[in-house]
Amino acid sequence: MDDAAEAPFIDPESDYPCCWFCPALRLPRTGFLFADRPSRDWPFDAADGFRYTVDTRTPVCVHPGRVGVAAELTARTYVDPPLPDPVRDDPGGRGRRWWRLRWPGFRAAPARR
């Protein structure tokens, strides 16, 4: 077994400003990926301090610029869903009454004659 192949990608004594939990400090270069930024696509696992890809559970470093490597993965841009439109969502055209939302079984008393 070649010891040089199993050495960490970044030497902890080097001048690279890596995070203390970066996979580059603990794994060889073939053991992790570089991403352009943190994302939901590679969530953080507090048990061991790595971010992992969701599908293959491969460790991910999210600061490629700190170690001088180009990013291999690009995070998707998430867009919030649109807010509900009360006019479009109410087919009767009448606004919903607050007491109907609060007390669904509430019925108005019959009118006096």
Describe this protein's structure.
Helix content is 12%, strand content 9%. It has three helices and four strands; from the N terminus they run ββββααα. β3 and β4 form a beta hairpin. The radius of gyration is 27 Å and the shape is elongated.
Question: What key attributes describe this structure?
Answer:
113 residues; little secondary structure; four-stranded mixed β-sheet; 3 helices; 4 strands
Mean pLDDT: 77
For the CA atoms, what is the radius of gyration?
A: 27 Å
How far the N terminus sits from the C terminus, by CA atoms, comes to 97 Å
User: Helix amount, in percent?
Assistant: 10-25%
Please report which band the strand proportion falls in: under 5%, 5-15%, 15-25%, 25-35%, 35-45% or over 45%.
Answer: 5-15%
Largest sheet, spatial ordering of strands: 1-4-3-2
Compose a concise summary of this entry.
The protein has 113 residues and is largely without helices or strands. The protein is 12% helix and 9% strand.
List the helices and strands and how they pair.
Blueprint: E1 33-34, E2 44-45, E3 50-52, E4 59-61, H1 64-67, H2 86-89, H3 98-102
